[in-house]
Amino acid sequence: MIQVSDGAKEKLTQLMKEEGYDFRADFVRVGVKSGGCSGLEYILKFDKEKTDTDRVFENNDIRIIVDKKSILYLAGTTLEYSGGLNGRGFVFDNPNASRTCGCGESFSL
Questions:
Q1: Residue 14 bridge partners (DSSP)
Q2: What are the C-alpha distances in Å from 9 to residues 14, 17, 37, 70, 90?
Q3: Does pTM top 0.90 for this prediction?
Q4: d(CA 31, CA 51)
Q5: Fewer C-beta within 10 Å: the chain N or C terminus?
Q6: Number of H helices and number of E strands within the chain?
């Protein structure tokens, strides 16, 4: 469903620890909502609980939850992390996106 690169895993586990989450027990919530300059924008946050409409995936030892309405938009997406001087932070490499904005935080189909 969603792939997590090694760089993203390293940064996610670091941030989860800093914010009081345990990457082995808690989740990274990934989703999509209306907004952004391209029409849809990504959601990325930490969560301790899942709902009945969430699907759980695990990749590269990261437990990911995606709400039911976001699954179709995110199928095949890879979550990457780009650091350094010109780094943009977390980047969604989404094969379903026909257009993305310059910052990479929103897309359209």
A1: none
A2: 8, 12, 27, 21, 10
A3: no
A4: 13
A5: C
A6: 2, 9
d(CA 8, CA 107): 20
**DSSP one-letter string for 36-48:** STTSEEEEEEEES
Q: For the chain, how many residues are written?
A: 109
User: Looking at residues 76-89, what average pLDDT do you find?
Assistant: 83
86 Cβ contact list (under 8 Å, min separation 6): none
Question: In this structure, are residues 8 and 42 in contact, taking their beta carbons and an 8 Å threshold?
Answer: no
Residue ranges in 1-109 assigned as alpha helix (H): 6-18, 71-74
Indicate the helix (H) or strand (E) that contains 27: strand 27-34
Amino acid in position 23: F
> Both tokens of residue 73?
């938009």
Average pLDDT over residues 48-55: 95
